[in-house]
Design a protein that fits this description.
Elements (H helix, E strand, L loop, with lengths): L3 E6 L6 H9 L4 E5 L8 H8 L10 E6 L3 H14 L7 E4 L4 H13 L8 E5 L4 H12 L3 E6 L2 H14 L4 E6 L6 H5 L4 E4 L12 H4 L5 E4 L16 E5 L2 E4 L1 H18 L7 E2 L1 H13 L1
Parallel strand pairs: 1-2, 1-3, 3-4, 4-12, 5-6, 5-8, 6-7, 8-9, 9-11
Antiparallel strand pairs: 10-11
Length: about 290
């Protein structure tokens, strides 16, 4: 029986990136829908549920994507609420690549620094990927500082992390003006920069000033770098005592996580791959 993946994209045009990855993951038939909302998704879900017998539903799966992470989260809830009894299919949500990218960054950091008990800072921590990175780090026991140009937005992001991870130790940090990067980063072992493409969040010299920093990861692939001094292709490159990863250096793992996650959807009919599940998958892959 052919493996059918239904791609529900919240944007008008379904992502070509996600389509290519689905094909590379071995999907036999890819059905892509754009402009999918909580209001129009139920008939599409019913089409996945009612066309095959319960024993064959593992051969049908749903991928939720699009640029809006909040929209993707709402859509995931609506999709899973539509299932009942044995009539369900596996679902993966990775809007804007938020979950697979964040998981790849966190797993990369964990290769060099134990997460539990470590101090981490996430620059651009209010964005879709930054929030996921902060959430995953907190889930693994790191103390996390969520940095933003707006202290108010950083506090909102902290509240959202606490809602998902009640035991999280998180605090907001404002970075609109930083006079002393050494002071800001003092005691920090892990830094992840997850700002908007082409936005420099740490200037030249700031990385060298961070004496305690063990791992620095910049997820921005568009010049200029989010962290000056880190190159996109860096993969565990040591710079002034700090192990550095650039967007391309993390990207290989991100792509592997994405492809294998899609493949896992077809192993059973009740899998839900959200942020936490994708992090667990990434950790399993890194150990294998």
């Amino acid at each position: 029986m052919q493996k059918i993946l239904l791609q529900f994209d919240t944007d008008p045009l379904p992502s070509s990136f996600d389509r290519v990855v689905a094909v590379d993951a071995g999907v036999d038939q890819l059905m892509s829908y754009g402009g999918v909302t909580c209001e129009n998704v139920v008939p599409l879900v019913h089409g996945a549920m009612f066309t095959r017998g319960p024993e064959d539903l593992k051969n049908t799966a749903i991928f939720i994507g699009g640029s809006g992470v909040k929209d993707g989260e709402k859509l995931l809830r609506r999709v899973t609420e539509t299932f009942f009894g044995p009539l369900r299919v596996s679902v993966m949500m990775d809007s804007n690549g938020c979950n697979t990218t964040a998981a790849a960054a966190v797993v990369s950091a964990a290769r060099h620094q134990q997460l539990r008990g470590s101090m981490a800072i996430v620059l651009g921590g209010t964005g879709p990927v930054g929030q996921r990175v902060a959430r995953m780090l907190a889930l693994r026991g790191a103390r996390v500082r969520i940095a933003s140009r707006s202290l108010q937005r950083a506090e909102v992001a902290c509240q959202q992390v606490r809602a998902s991870v009640p035991e999280a130790v998180v605090e907001p940090v404002e970075t609109a003006v930083v006079d002393d990067w050494k002071e800001l980063l003092g005691g920090t072992q892990i830094l992840v920069s997850a700002g908007a493409a082409g936005a420099e969040l740490m200037p030249t010299g700031a990385l060298e000033a961070a004496g305690d920093l063990r791992v620095a990861i910049d997820l921005n692939a568009v010049p200029p770098a989010g962290v000056a001094g880190i190159k996109p292709a860096d993969k565990a490159a040591e710079r002034d005592g700090t192990i550095c990863y650039g967007a391309i250096g993390v990207g290989g793992l991100k792509m592997r996580i994405h492809r294998i996650a899609v493949q896992r959807l077809f192993e059973r009919n009740d899998l839900v791959l959200d942020a936490e599940a994708i992090l667990e998958l990434a950790e399993q892959l890194d150990r294998s």
